[in-house]
Structures are given as C-alpha cells and as structure tokens.
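Annotators were shown the component list below and the corresponding predicted structure, then asked to write short factual statements about the assembly.
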Amino acid sequence: AQSVTQLGSHVSVSEGALVLLRCNYSSSVPPYLFWYVQYPNQGLQLLLKYTSAATLVKGINGFEAEFKKSETSFHLTKPSAHMSDAAEYFCAVSSNFGNEKLTFGTGTRLTIIP
Amino acid sequence: GAGVSQSPSNKVTEKGKDVELRCDPISGHTALYWYRQSLGQGLEFLIYFQGNSAPDKSGLPSDRFSAERTGGSVSTLTIQRTQQEDSAVYLCASSQTGRGFQFGSGTRLTVV
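Structure shown to annotators:
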C-alpha cells in the first residue's frame, strides 16, 4: 500500500519569498512521485514528476522538488513566489508511471501575500 | 480529442435520484481513472480501468456507485439513489504507460 502525507493544509508566503510545500510518502516499492497544481475551478495540471532518474526534478513555472529516500520526502520548492502561484497543490505517489493509480495527499492551499 | 473531456460540467440533482457522469479519455490511452474531490478531503480514488483487464473497484464507497467503460474508450460513472454526501467534484483521468496522467476538468455534482 502507498500513502502520501502533506504537512500543512494551508501555507501563506509573501510575494518574492521562498515557497516550501512538504510531502512525505510511504511505499513498499520504489515510488514514482508527482506534484500537481489546481487553480480555482480548473482541473489538475502536472507540475513535475520523479521517475527514478535524477533526484532533483525541475518542473514548470520555476518549481522543483528533491527526492530524498532516507527521509521519504519529496518537498516542492520555488525560490521566489509569484502572485500567480496561488493555488492548491497535491502530492501523489504511484508504483508505476502511467500504468497504475495515483494516491494523493490531501492537498496544500498556497496563498501569496502581496 | 486534445484532452480528457467530462460532461456535464455541473449537475444538480435531488436526493434519491440517479445520475450518470461521462468521461471521454484521450484517444489511445489504455488506462482510465475516476476520482472524487470533496471539500477538504483531497482526491479520493474510486475506480481504475486498464485495457481489457477487470477494473480495480477498490475505491468505490458503496454499492450505489458503479462505472463502466465501453469499447475501451468512453466511461460512465453512475451513482444511484444519490445522497447529500455524494456532493463533490468527480474527476476523470486517462493515461498511457510512460506518459503520465491527463485529468479532465471534472463534473461538479450537487445533491439537494
């Protein structure tokens, strides 16, 4: 069984500040890890994915995440927050890439303070 | 089509009525998934179809929920005798090995 825990259901950062959204996973097999973003009244969009290649993964909109097996973490970061980053972010885990269901965390709502 | 299409985008129904939600996956994607997104609950897996294999129904919350996928393409999620707790956004996604998920925009179901 796989699971994901996202610490902090709500995170607020000032515009220009570092964004850090936390995700810890549990998996009995080597995981595939994902971050999705959901803007208001829209569907989910893939930000980035870890598929057992490089542990530091770069995604769209300046986001990146680092896979740390020893910490079972896959935290999402962005050096400088922009107002357009305000959205809900979901971490997800799977045992495959494109051929198995995703298990999602409960999400983190990111608010950007002007 | 260009993406995963879901219909209707919004559905208001009376308690006790049956509803059908439709999902058109991306052409050629062999896997199709249904998720439910309730306020503050994240995304809850419901059911997963992969090619001609028996679907993984492990996430369906009750026997009022069922889904089918005809011809390996279009899928319909049916909720019988709807209850207020069924109110949520129902998301469909499709995928192909090595290509990841593509989500639709969802159907917002409101049971009154």
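Statements collected:
1. Chain A has a mean pLDDT of 93.
2. The first strand of chain A starts at residue 3 and ends at 7.
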